[in-house]
Design a protein that fits this description.
The complex is a heterodimer of chains A (about 110) and B (about 120).
Chain A (H helix, E strand, L loop, with lengths): L2 E5 L2 E5 L4 E8 L3 E9 L6 E6 L5 E4 L2 E5 L3 E6 L8 E9 L5 E3 L3 E6 L1
Parallel strand pairs in A: 2-11
Antiparallel strand pairs in A: 1-3, 3-8, 4-5, 4-9, 6-7, 7-8, 9-10, 9-11
Chain B lengths: L3 E4 L2 E4 L5 E7 L5 E8 L3 E10 L2 E4 L7 E2 L9 E3 L8 E8 L9 E3 L3 E5 L1
Parallel strand pairs in B: 2-11
Antiparallel strand pairs in B: 1-3, 3-8, 4-5, 4-9, 5-6, 7-8, 9-10, 9-11
Classes of the chains: A mainly beta (about 110), B mainly beta (about 120).
Chain lengths: ~110, ~120
Amino acid sequence: EDQVTQSPEALRLQEGESSSLNCSYTVSGLRGLFWYRQDPGKGPEFLFTLYSAGEEKEKERLKATLTKKESFLHITAPKPEDSATYLCAVRGSSASKIIFGSGTRLSIRP
Amino acid sequence: EAQVTQNPRYLITVTGKKLTVTCSQNMNHEYMSWYRQDPGLGLRQIYYSMNVEVTDKGDVPEGYKVSRKEKRNFPLILESPSPNQTSLYFCASIGLAESSYNEQFFGPGTRLTVL
């Protein structure tokens, strides 16, 4: 059964303090691993799609990487406006369902 | 502007009173989906549709119905709502064309309370 686990549940950083969020997944035939940002009371906002091990994508202070078992979202020199919940999801080849992790709540202190 | 719209944004209703939440996208996306989001449980897929007249169950389909008669619309129907369907609901669409493959857009959400 396809499964996604994110860690940590919550992370508090000082402005400028770089860190990484983890997404571990089990899926039969990965057709895409997705990262989203969600602000309170709003719909998730698409960040990245990764397809194969070794792939990396970057957007401003965010960089997503992928291995065969997990993905990392690296945040470099974060700012308070990066505070949000970051969601990971996968889509496998056995079905067209999309499975989400429970997210990491990121808080950046000025 | 590319967007997914949902209506209503907020709804308070009573047990057993049928309701429909509408969803519409203007990006000509083939894939549309409904999710519910509950504290501690994250986003769970209710139903999805790969194209017109093609729908399939997600992880939590019980108590819900959907239809896809047109490509742009994907309404969510609760025939007899119950309090355990109180939740925040999101509609989403995904492009399958090469230029926007797998980029999923979400609507603003519908907060439903069933008394």
